[in-house]
Design brief:
Helix content is about 35%, strand content about 25%. The protein is of the alpha/beta class and about 230 residues long. A hairpin with a 2-residue loop joins strand 1 and strand 2. The strands form two sheets. A six-stranded mixed beta sheet has the order 5-6-7-3-8-9, with helices on both faces. The protein has a three-stranded antiparallel beta sheet with strand order 2-1-4, covered by helices on one side. The mean pLDDT is about 95. It has helices at about 40-45, 80-90, 95-110, 125-135, 155-170, 180-185, 205-210, 215-220; strands at about 1-10, 15-25, 30-35, 55-60, 65-70, 145, 175-180, 190-195, 200-205.
């Protein structure tokens, strides 16, 4: 579905991605793990077609509108939950009746039914993150990209968001970044580990998280740093 070939991405004098090659198959779930600054967010932005690579190429087989990304710190309009979630459908010109039905359905999916009229400023952090997922899922994406979707959440909200992600994986291809390796193992069938802008290991959760062969990766998983 998505292929990165020897992608290099620079920001000023810093190289964020160093010749990354990665394939994402249609219908799979893939987690990107690695320490802060390893290139996870940059890889997602390139995959979302938001940033162009300085070298290499990105191939996406499908409609570019089928790619949706949820950022680690989403930006919302200072209005109601309904209008925030409906925005993407409105700019695509969908009929109001369809918009209403799809927004109500997706809010039920994320556990926010009956909250259509709430103002964003009244929501908790967990509710905002669930609304961000609703805003992405209402578009019925082919490829959903999630940048550390639970990084600022407490355990109960993390559990809720992980459940929403599992439901999303039934309908679309999901690639997420996380600095929590065991979350990657819970949510994905395949894991890729980034370090200093390179993919240094990839495989099943068992191969990468449960029985890693690389000593530096084992230290990272034990919380000892690199």
């Amino acid at each position: 579905m998505l292929e990165l070939r020897r992608v290099v991405r620079r920001y000023g004098g810093k190289i964020a991605l160093r010749g990354v090659s990665l394939r994402v198959r249609r219908g799979e779930s893939l987690s990107l793990i690695g320490p802060n600054g390893s290139g996870k967010t940059t890889l997602l932005r390139v995959a979302a077609l938001l940033d162009r690579p300085d070298e290499g190429e990105v191939r996406y087989r499908g409609d570019p509108q089928g790619v949706t990304m949820v950022f680690q710190q989403p930006v919302f309009f200072d209005t109601t939950v309904f209008k925030n979630v409906a925005y993407g459908l409105r700019i695509r010109g969908r009929p109001e009746a369809e918009i209403g039905e799809r927004v109500r359905r997706v809010l039920s999916l994320v556990g926010m039914e009956g909250m259509e009229g709430r103002r964003v400023r009244e929501l908790s952090g967990g509710e905002r993150q669930r609304m961000a997922l609703a805003r992405a899922l209402v578009l019925e994406p082919e490829l959903l990209l999630l940048d550390e979707p639970t990084s600022s959440l407490d355990p109960p909200n993390t559990w809720l968001v992980e459940g929403i992600i599992r439901e999303a994986e039934r309908e679309c291809t999901v690639v997420l970044s996380t600095n929590q390796p065991f979350q990657a193992a819970r949510l994905s069938r395949r894991v890729a580990c980034l370090f200093e802008g390179r993919v240094i290991a990839r495989g099943s959760p068992r191969e990468i998280v449960e029985r890693p062969r690389w000593e530096r990766l084992r230290r990272f998983l034990r919380g000892e740093g690199w």
